Known about the structure:
It is a single chain. By secondary structure, the protein is α+β, with helices and mostly antiparallel strands. The protein has a domain at 149-263: Glutathione S-transferase Yfyf (Class Pi), Chain A, domain 2 (Up-down Bundle). It has ten helices and four strands. The chain has a four-stranded mixed β-sheet with strand order 2-1-3-4, with helices on one face. Helix 2 (62-76) packs parallel to helix 4 and helix 7 crosses helix 9 (251-261).
Amino acid sequence: MSQNNNATNSQPDSYIPPKIWTQDKENGGKFASINSPMAGARHEQKLPVGDAPLQLYSLNTPNGVKVNILLEELAELGIKGSEYDAYLIDISKGDQFGSDFVAINPNSKIPALVDNTDAGEPIALFESGAILMYLAEKFGKFIPMQQGKARAECLSWLMWQMGSAPFLGGGFGHFYAYAPEPMEYPINRYTMEVKRQLDVLDRHLKDNQYIGGNDEADYNIADMIIWAWYGQLALGKLYEAAEFLQVDEYPHLQRWAKKIADHPAVKRAVDLVLKPIA
């Protein structure tokens, strides 16, 4: 009886949220030093601008790789005007809070892109989904341009990824790989959701070679944006979590992930060389 009492007494007190949240201590984890509840620039930092029509400011994380893939696929086709300069935004050093970057992306997240191809003011874009849609529509490649079933499906899966990936990256990835210590409840909660998402993809890909269909022409930005997160996860490239998530249980997802990974443009995109900004 006393042993049970001692075991109970040794447990930490449950967290009770205060009436008003305040940042009164470091939250811990890999990115604790750069996390803040405040937006905006933290220091002056000028971004370089190259001679190419498009200027990419990014990092080769899954969100950055999405845009890399499209740019390299456009390069593979020799599309005029899609040439780009690529610069490294090192989020571990806080480059995303530099004044020039915040002017392009007030949310201080990679990737960001500036289009200098028009005669007017440069066009700044942030959010990977917005960048992919903008470039695909600008060049008329890798997106169904006509209203109809194919376009609706492409946009639906594009938005699926944008809505789902935060559960994978900010949820599962954070608590499984980056939190200061393992915590059972959040890991279980986000693992369940990630495996559900993998099952969504596996079921869809059972009857589809690509997200949008079975023809090579059906390969589009929905494949690119989903592969950067879920394809790499299925291939064991994210969080060292392949065994934990049992990714081999999803054969159709595996087949698709390997097929996309074999694209020369995708191989270049994953290891894209980004020039330092200073």
